[in-house]
C-alpha cells in the first residue's frame, strides 16, 4: 500500500511537496486551515491531489504515515502537538525534495540577513559560469516543485530556520551561513540559543567532502562554530583578518580556495554597502568551490541586478530619492540599510513587531535620521524607543499616507527610506505588497 503523506499548509512549499509526493507514488492529502490561492487549487486539481481548506479533518491528518509541515506553522499549534503526541514523523518540504534530488549538487544558504541577496548572486554566478542551476526555496519556486517538474544538476536553495527545524537527512554540498542576529524569537521560546541551533542544522549532515562558508566577523557565528560537530571543510570570510578562504583588505577582495586565488576591487561590485561585501564574498567563495572560472565570477559580480524590495531605488522626485527596502522585516536588516545611507534620511518604520530591540538602531538613527514615519497599527514601541533621538515621529495608516508625510518632511538631497524592521501583516498581505504599494504611492506623488 502507498505510504500516506499529509501536507499541512497549501502555500508554495506545501503544493510543491504535494506535487512531488504524488509523482513519487505517495497517497497524498493536503490540508490548509485558511484558503488556498486559485493558482494552487488548479495545480492540485490537475495533479489529481485531494485537498481541503478552511480547517483540518483531524482523523485524516492523524492517520498519516508522515507529515510535511509548512514552515509557517509553529510547534505550539494544537494539531501539530497532536501529531507529535502520535509519534508521526514530521518533515519539511526541503527534506522531501532532498530525498528525490538524486545526485544533483545542492548549495543551501541561510542566515538572519542577506540570505536572499546571497542566494540570488550565487545563482547568477552559476548561470554566468555555465552551470544549469535552479533558484529555489524561500525565494520563489519551492525546491520540491522544481525537483518534480524540472529537475536540474544544481540547486541553489534559500532555507529558513523554520525549514531546517524539520530536516532529517537534508545535506547540502555547500552550506552558507551569512550571519545570526536575533530574529523570529517568538518561534523559539524567546531563547536565542534555540534559534542559533536551528541555523546550525544546515551543517548537521555534511561530510568531510562538503563545504561550510560562514562569516568569521559575525560574533554569534564565530562563538558557535566550536559548539557544533562540523565535519565539512570550513571556509571563513572576513574583513578583519586574512584567512585561507576569502577576505577584504585595502578595498580588494581576495578569494583563495585550493591552489587558485582571485582578487577584485570592491568598487567593481554592483552591490553597495558593507553588508553586501560580505554577501558578495560568500557568493564568490561558493563559486570558487564549484570550480567556476574566476573570469566568470568577476563578470557575474559586475553584472548582478539587485532584488525588488531590497534597497531598490524607486525614483528621485524634486531631489528626494525614494528607496524601497520593504524586505527588511527585522531590526538588523534596517540597521544595515541605515548604515549604507550617505544622505539625511526620512525613515518609514513599523508593522508587526517580532520582539524587536530598537536600541540596536539608536546610534544610527541619531546620526542619520531626521524624521520617522510610522506605518503600522500599533506604533507605541517605536515612539518610546526614538522620542529622544528624532525630532519628528508621525503615525500613518497606509502606504500613500506614509509617502506623503515622508515627502513633506524631506528636502532636496534627502532620502526617503522604507525599511520597516517589522513584518507587514497588520496593513498588507506581505512585504511584497507593502513594497508595491509604497512604489505606487511614490510614482503618484
From TrEMBL:
PANTHER family with a match to the protein in the record: UDP-N-ACETYLMURAMOYLALANINE--D-GLUTAMATE LIGASE (PTHR43692)
Assigned GO CC terms: cytoplasm
Pfam families documented for this protein: Mur_ligase_C, Mur_ligase_M, MurD_N
RNA-binding among keywords: no
Species this protein is from: Niabella drilacis (strain DSM 25811 / CCM 8410 / CCUG 62505 / LMG 26954 / E90)
Major localisation: cytoplasm
Location in or out of the cell: Cytoplasm
Name of protein: UDP-N-acetylmuramoylalanine--D-glutamate ligase
This enzyme's EC code(s): 6.3.2.9
Binding site for ATP: 111-117
Keyword terms, alphabetized: ATP-binding, Cell cycle, Cell division, Cell shape, Cell wall biogenesis/degradation, Cytoplasm, Ligase, Nucleotide-binding, Peptidoglycan synthesis
Lineage, uppermost ranks: Bacteria, Pseudomonadati, Bacteroidota, Chitinophagia, Chitinophagales
Gene Ontology molecular-function annotations: ATP binding; UDP-N-acetylmuramoylalanine-D-glutamate ligase activity
Similarity-based family: Belongs to the MurCDEF family.
InterPro entries: Mur-like_cat_sf, Mur_ligase_C, Mur_ligase_C_dom_sf, Mur_ligase_cen, MurD
Domain Mur ligase central: 109-286
Catalytic activity: UDP-N-acetyl-alpha-D-muramoyl-L-alanine + D-glutamate + ATP = UDP-N-acetyl-alpha-D-muramoyl-L-alanyl-D-glutamate + ADP + phosphate + H(+)
Role this protein plays: Cell wall formation. Catalyzes the addition of glutamate to the nucleotide precursor UDP-N-acetylmuramoyl-L-alanine (UMA).
Domain of life: Bacteria
Pathway connected to this protein: Cell wall biogenesis; peptidoglycan biosynthesis
Key word S-adenosyl-L-methionine present: no
Gene: murD
Enzyme class: ligase
Domain Mur ligase C-terminal residue range list: 309-422
Amino acid at each position: 500500500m502507498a505510504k500516506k503523506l499529509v501536507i499541512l499548509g497549501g502555500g508554495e512549499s506545501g503544493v510543491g511537496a504535494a506535487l512531488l509526493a504524488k509523482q513519487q507514488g505517495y497517497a497524498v492529502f493536503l490540508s490548509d486551515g485558511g484558503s488556498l490561492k486559485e493558482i494552487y487549487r488548479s495545480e492540485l486539481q490537475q495533479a489529481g491531489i485531494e485537498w481541503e481548506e478552511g480547517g483540518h479533518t483531524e482523523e485524516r491528518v492523524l492517520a498519516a504515515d508522515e507529515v510535511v509541515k509548512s514552515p509557517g506553522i509553529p510547534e505550539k499549534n494544537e494539531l501539530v502537538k497532536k501529531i507529535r503526541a502520535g509519534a508521526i514523523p514530521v518533515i519539511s518540504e526541503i527534506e522531501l525534495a532532498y530525498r528525490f534530488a538524486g545526485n544533483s549538487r545542492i548549495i543551501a544558504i541561510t542566515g538572519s540577513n542577506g540570505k536572499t541577496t546571497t542566494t540570488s548572486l550565487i545563482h547568477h554566478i552559476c548561470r554566468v559560469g555555465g552551470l544549469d542551476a535552479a533558484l529555489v526555496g524561500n525565494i520563489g519556486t519551492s525546491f520540491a516543485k522544481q525537483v518534480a517538474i524540472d529537475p536540474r544538476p544544481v540547486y541553489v536553495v534559500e532555507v529558513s530556520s523554520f525549514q531546517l527545524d524539520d530536516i532529517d537527512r537534508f545535506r547540502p554540498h555547500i552550506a552558507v551561513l551569512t550571519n545570526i542576529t536575533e530574529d523570529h524569537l517568538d518561534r523559539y521560546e524567546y531563547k536565542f540559543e534555540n534559534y542559533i541551533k536551528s541555523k546550525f542544522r544546515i551543517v548537521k549532515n555534511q561530510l568531510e567532502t562538503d563545504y561550510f562558508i560562514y562569516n568569521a566577523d559575525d560574533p554569534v557565528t564565530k562563538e558557535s562554530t566550536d559548539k557544533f560537530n562540523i565535519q565539512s571543510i570550513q571556509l571563513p570570510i572576513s574583513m578583519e583578518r586574512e584567512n585561507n578562504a576569502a577576505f577584504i583588505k585595502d578595498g580588494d577582495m581576495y578569494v583563495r580556495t585550493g591552489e587558485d586565488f582571485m582578487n577584485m576591487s570592491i568598487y567593481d561590485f554592483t552591490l553597495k554597502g558593507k553588508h553586501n561585501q560580505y554577501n558578495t564574498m560568500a557568493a564568490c567563495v561558493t563559486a570558487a568551490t564549484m570550480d567556476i572560472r574566476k573570469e566568470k565570477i568577476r563578470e557575474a559580480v559586475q553584472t548582478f541586478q539587485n532584488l525588488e524590495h531590497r534597497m531598490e531605488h524607486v525614483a528621485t522626485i524634486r531631489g528626494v530619492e525614494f528607496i524601497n527596502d520593504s524586505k527588511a522585516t527585522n531590526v538588523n536588516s534596517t540597521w544595515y540599510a541605515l548604515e549604507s545611507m550617505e544622505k539625511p534620511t526620512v525613515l518609514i518604520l513599523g508593522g508587526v513587531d517580532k520582539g524587536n530591540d530598537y536600541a540596536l538602531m539608536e546610534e544610527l538613527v541619531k546620526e542619520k535620521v531626521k524624521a520617522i514615519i510610522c506605518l503600522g497599527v500599533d506604533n507605541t514601541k517605536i515612539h518610546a524607543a526614538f522620542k529622544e533621538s528624532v525630532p519628528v515621529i508621525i503615525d500613518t495608516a497606509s502606504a500613500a499616507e506614509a509617502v506623503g508625510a515622508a515627502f513633506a518632511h524631506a528636502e532636496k538631497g534627502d532620502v526617503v527610506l522604507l525599511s520597516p524592521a517589522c513584518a507587514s501583516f497588520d496593513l498588507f498581505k506581505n512585504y511584497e505588497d507593502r513594497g508595491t504599494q509604497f512604489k505606487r504611492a511614490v510614482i503618484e506623488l
